[in-house]
Hints:
Oligomer: single chain
Strand content: 25-35%
Helix content: 40-55%
Distance between the termini: 70 Å
Structural class: alpha+beta
Number of strands: 8
Shape: globular
Amino acid sequence: MNKLSVLVMSIFLMLAAAMWYLASASFEEHIKQQINEIGLKALGVSTKADNISQAGSQTRISTVSFYNKERQLAHFNNIEIILDNKSLKEDVFIIESITVENVDTLMAIEDKEALVKHIQQYFIEQEKTSAKQPLLTVKALVIGDEKKDDLLIKLNGEEQGIRADFLFINLIKLILLENNLT
């Protein structure tokens, strides 16, 4: 009987380990898919995220790239997002910090104009939807070595938190269009 219980316990442990691995992989794939989908809808360009990893409250994305007809417009390198795990029980999730180590852009004026047009259209369309989404707020934004406190109000909006997709789009808009990094 003892040998049978050890065998059953071993099988349960292997299944638990497999489920843990699959849950982690599916979370990372979900994040990748959301970045790609929202980027295409809101920006009108292909958006690709590479090497997403998550450990505890920290999420790292090695690169987010933006393409227009196979021509690279920009990419953000080494993105780190630190979430306040205690806030997950609240109505507004708190992101302690978003750090973008490096931003490279190759955008022409017509690329910027097209991006602004797509973003405005996306916001208009999405404000009509009544889909309930979690709200987020960001406490710190760092681009390169510089803390960007002046951009936090624009990023977070005037309200108590902002939808995740709006936060992503506002972050891209602030970095590529309003921060003079191009």
